[in-house]
Specification:
The chain is mainly alpha-helical. 69% of the residues lie in helices and 0% in strands.
Length: 148
Amino acid sequence: MIESLNAQVIGKVDMVIGEAAKASGVSAKMLRYYESIGLLPDVPRTASGYRTYGKREVETLRFIRRARDLGLSMDRIRLLVGLWHDRERPSREVKRIALEHVRELYVRISELTAMCSTLEELAGACRGDNRPDCPILRDLERGARSVS
């Protein structure tokens, strides 16, 4: 039922913002934001001032949503949208952007893993009973004092 409704909405030539949001899986608020930062081109408006979106805009919104799902920054998404719309593009540039993001993800994973290890170690040293002594709080306090 939902897929057939989505297919009907996507097949429409002109959609208002709510329909485009539903068809793309992007909220109307985010859709407006993407327009405001230039990720989506200006779209035509009806006589009463409502924006109208077509198939291309919905496809672009889906592209953006997928890129966000993969954790890409808005700057990278902007580059990728431009490359996606450029049918003469060299794929090496797309690959470079993707691999650069992968490297950054691995760095972030390493940082998160180190944080987990530290917190596990501190939690393991904490008795977790009714006494006020807590190595977790001592460690956090030590960090706060070194900054001031």
